[in-house]
Amino acid sequence: MPRFPTEADFPSGVRLLHDPVRNKGTAFNEAERDALGLRGLLPPRILGQDLQVARILENLRDKPSDLDRYISLVGLQDRNEVLFYRVLLDNLEELMPIVYTPTVGKACQEFGHIFRRPRGLYVSANDRGRVREVLGNWPHDDVRIIVVTDGERILGLGDLGADGMGIPIGKLALYSACAGIHPTKTLPVMLDTGTESEQRLQDPLYLGLQQQRLRGDAYDQLVEEFFDAVAEVFPKAVVQLEDFANTNAFRLLAKYRKRACCFDDDIQGTAGVALAGILSALRITGDKLGDRPVLFLGAGEAAIGIGELLVAAMIQEGWREDHAKRQCWFMDSKGLVVAGREALTEQKAPFAHEAEHTGDLVEAIERIKPGALLGLSAQGGAFTRPVLEAMARVNERPIVFALSNPTSKSECTAEQAYEWTGGRAIFASGSPFAPVDMSGKHFVPGQGNNAYVFPGVGLGLIVSQARECTDEMFYEAARALAAMTHEEDLAKGRVYPPLASIREISANIAEAVARVAFDRALAGVEPFEDLAAAIREEMFEPDYPDYA
């Protein structure tokens, strides 16, 4: 962790203990206690970070619910960021479901009721004309990654308005834990333009604007002002768009991706993770990308984003574009997306193939014979027994990814996927499921968590100071992730590497992304003699510095 510029800038005494960036709690040594005015403000015994971690874990594991554990971890983050990231990084498989999906969904639903201390910036519709001033209130001036949402489509939970702030906070915690981006270089932003949620409009504890959402020009002007302000106040920042509704997600990405280094994690990050999982699964089935169709249940931003990246990947593998698009089929709330259907969106139209319409998923499977079925519908239980049995009839090893979040929205459970396919499914999900023992076999379901991809992508963009984030970067990120899934993982049915290796995964993805930036003349710095070393040099370790 870096030292700070001058002694005058460094707090002491109680102010230091209340500074989450610098606070070490009981780990301050004798010399530090004397030098920094801490004598008597702490219990006399010095307890190092390892014992502090043990205390935190003991208390977390005694909590009655995951939401209580979430609240406890947020409290730790507010008191001592270094300790928070040490606990999180060393126990990632246990705690990622707490700080992010699925628990963060419940936390967002209850956000106004569990609120303790503000974190991040709220840019509201009332701030039009002074967004630059609002951004200037942030205490850290070297922001390198911003996650911004307007809260209109939080996970599969819909419009949560300003209560969706838990998502940028959680995402940036993963940037720091998984990719080592220093917490002071991260900034969560809630773009509060109102909400259509009557529950929140009537809730006296709701924290956001109690008004209907801005639409049209008023909304666009606020977003425009936000991007302009970011360019002025934080010129080196990457902007990640998060959980915008379909009506805005695609058009905002298209509008700003050439003007700023930005990406939409729901469209591109999800696509990268899904593509990596498919590439790994194909090593089990023996097929090549493009050999078999892929059928999507759901045709929103995540599903279309995966489809577009799959097409790009198939073209890279040597297929023609028309064949690549023909291998991607979508079902939305009105049934199979086919040519001739009325009112197809601009994003769905390229995937509307000549075929007879059907609203029945089993019929679509039997007709298309997809090698992979991907669920992004936010319809819990949509992969019924007949659906999975149909996949098993047309595949020796059916690929079934139930990617909707949180767990309640998952299209099926891991146990259902294995049981209803006779143990032949290659399964992954958006939220975690426990291993399944069935018929003498031990199955370890993969979790298609975006945390495998977006932290490394962000790190690669930061290190290269890229001017633009391209789809090719996500293709290379997916390839890098799939390459780290080893044969012993595949033997267990796992299509992603263990989360315990997330720092190495993020570093490899960052290197792949940065190489694209350098190769395509998109970097804002000269190429490094040793890119891998430069990336690892950028990654902070959550260890206490010596202040004495």
Mean pLDDT: 95
Please bin the fraction of helical residues: 40-55%
Radius of gyration: 24 Å
CATH superfamily of the largest domain: NAD(P)-binding Rossmann-like Domain
Largest sheet: 7 strands, mixed
Widest beta sheet: strand line-up: 8-7-6-9-10-11-14
Low-confidence stretches: 1-8
Going by helix content, strand content and strand pairing, the class is: alpha/beta
Share of β-strand residues:
5-15%
- Domain count, please report it: 3
Query: What name does the CATH topology of the largest domain carry?
Result: Rossmann fold
The CATH class of the largest domain is identified as Alpha Beta
In whole angstroms, how far apart are the ends? 14 Å
Indicate the CATH architecture of the largest domain: 3-Layer(aba) Sandwich
Give a count of the beta strands, DSSP E runs of length 2 or more.
14
Q: What gross morphology would you assign?
A: globular
Number of helices: 24
Give an overview of the whole structure.
There is one protein chain. This protein has helices at 13-17, 30-35, 49-62, 66-79, 81-90, 92-99, 103-109, 111-114, 131-136, 166-179, 198-201, 216-233, 246-256, 265-285, 301-316, 321-326, 361-368, 385-394, 414-419, 454-464, 471-483, 487-491, 502-519, 531-538, and strands spanning 121-124, 145-149, 186-192, 238-241, 262-264, 294-297, 328-332, 335-336, 372-375, 399-402, 426-429, 436-438, 441-443, 446-447. The relative contact order is 0.10. The chain is of the alpha/beta class. Mean pLDDT is 95; it is low at 1-8. It has three domains: 1-47, Hemocyanin, N-terminal domain; 99-260, Rossmann fold, CATH 3.40.50.10380; 265-548, NAD(P)-binding Rossmann-like Domain (Rossmann fold).
